[in-house]
């Protein structure tokens, strides 16, 4: 077997199917907010980004930038080791205490990535709870899937947001069987919320623990911005809440919050946590400043929710089809990988708008889409101009209307 030729063939197949990913060389600047400089082979160009997860534009907020700058000057960049070997700083301690308070939980634990948080926590629960059965929504994130696999527990997959199916699966296991229901509050590729209250009720009736991924709702929902569970008044009824800083909080890293026993078990037994270099102290300082800013000031989340409502109304008026209109994440349905890429390319080349196409296998084949994410720094005029451009491209390519 010619290994390198085989890999070339795999890449060629991805390109033929419209699944080959390309990446823009972007210079995001705090002063530009929703705009960025695109460094291409044809020169530099200012574009408007419509696919960033920096929903509240916290990555460039003065409080965050100031905290990071001060921490770099004070302690330098890296921590010099994993958490157990010189990698725990005063910033890590302060942020974990802040996060526990933020979510109303006894304890919190930081990770270098959100992916790592899910992988570590779920793998430990699977390994350390004998006989555990994990019930997982079929559209759960890859990090959740990886964590469940790593734990080795038996898994049962319930249809997306189908509480009736979840109840039937739970009923197949007696009260003596330990159970864990794992789901997300907001599925970012679908743009839809889970029926969180109904899932929690079903889990409680079956005596199951719950694990909720709030990555895409933290900062945007809830009276203090701690997520969708807070908005619904359900935080106290959920066992473990996981989230991160790479979306609404504008930084990087992930975390879990929950009971002392769960958090300490993950801290003690998760291989990826124990042997990974800890988050850089200035990054942690920036995350701490972001959480504190979000908790005391609702202005950014009010702005992003206003812009998303405006965007959805304008798309509805133009009859441009959406996968869901539930949330601040607005997935525009194209349904073909090559057309999805063409829409993205034309928006960029002709109008200066960057929206990454999302094709299979990230989403099911035939449901290819543009995942549009307005931020708090997009203006009403930005929304109007973007919808006008998308409507023109939609007509030029003769795409079907809703």
TrEMBL record:
Pfam families referenced in this protein's UniProt entry, alphabetically: Aminotran_1_2
Reaction(s) catalysed by this chain's protein: 6-carboxyhexanoyl-[ACP] + L-alanine + H(+) = (8S)-8-amino-7-oxononanoate + holo-[ACP] + CO2
The protein's enzyme class: transferase
CDD domains found in the cross-reference section: KBL_like
Family: Belongs to the class-II pyridoxal-phosphate-dependent aminotransferase family.
NCBIfam families in alphabetical order: 5aminolev_synth
Protein name in UniProt: 8-amino-7-oxononanoate synthase
Gene: hemA
